[in-house]
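Q: Protein A?
A:
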Amino acid sequence: MTDTQILRQHAEQEYAVELAALAAADDRPRPPRWRLSPWAVTTYLLGGSLPDGTEITAKYVGSRRLIEIAVASLATDRALLLLGVPGTAKTWVGEHLAAAISGDSTLVVQGTAGTPEESLRYGWNYARLLAEGPSREALVPSPVMRAMESGALVRIEELTRIPADVQDALISILSEKTLPIPELDQEAQAAQGFNLIATANNRDKGVNDLSSALKRRFNTVVLPLPDSLDSEVEIVRSRVAAIGRSLQLPDDLAAVPEIERVVTIFRELRGGMTLNQRSSVKSPSATLSTAEAISVMTNGVALAAHFGDGVVRAADLAAGLTGAVVKDPVQDLLVWQEYLETVVKDRPEWADLYRACRELA
């Protein structure tokens, strides 16, 4: 399959040119098995210019110090826990950290309520197990075990979605840096360079709190929502443009004024106050994160491209906005209707958006 047929490339594939340029220009000390130095990893995530003129695009828009703390944690023997509400780029940051440090972001465990212990330890090829008995050849290593043996980074997404008894399988891995295999009277020892990045949030239902023993084995970095309107608009603009390219949508559809309206609505509803601090508003049950704004804009771009005149208009955004805000069909609908009548209606420049949203209602 060619690159043009892949819907979404891994970070190390999409940004291979930037990673190669950073590696060539990077003359700073690198921890064992790291592809780049901590300085170069931070530059890769936050963007910058190299001496040869290569421009490194920003993958994360936010506090430099937070990224420096995360990278420094991974350079030690402490695992990294990226914590935050849904949509604060935890998975995005984790993927790019793995791509820059190990050159491989594919060693990942997706946490769910049904994640078994084998996903963190190892399983068995039962056909070989029955035919040959327990052997290393019959063992199926988990992504965690493969990362330990190769000295790479492994990612665990939504750690708090994993049942508590399964989570605890990580304690000996993170403290002793070994994975016992009692069936073979052996153990897998972590090679230099091994570490773990986990993500978690406490807003979803079905969250399993981490035990104190497991918490102590992580350095926690809390990723906040963007602190300004301009930074959030820039995040949405860049991500919608990247998604649009992968979906072969026109590059110029995602107009910044429309992005500003979507982001303004989200910031006001989740903050409980209009941006001019003149009116308080009720907040819905939805998180209304930056990721939701990206989704609303991407849907609007697709509508404009395929069913409109090629320009993103209020009618293209109305359905996405309503779907993002109204998660509870009773409570959230009342919040949304009140916001439309008390805030959107009073902004003359938003008259088209008010009409489009009221028509849907």
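Q: Protein B?
A:
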Amino acid sequence: MDKSLVTVHPTTEANWHNKNVRTEGMLLRDYFAAKAMQARLSNPQWIASDERTALDAYQVADAMLRAREAS
């Protein structure tokens, strides 16, 4: 199983009140990237484009997934 495809707070039809909506939850990679981006943006010294910030966040997320796999 590809552990990068693990979801965070998975929601499925079984526990979602609207049967017309289906989601499998946020990917762990996206969760890690969101946390990394939040940390970068909370630093008033961080000055970069939105695109650079997003790319950096996913690079951090990928490093976190590699570290998770190695442990």
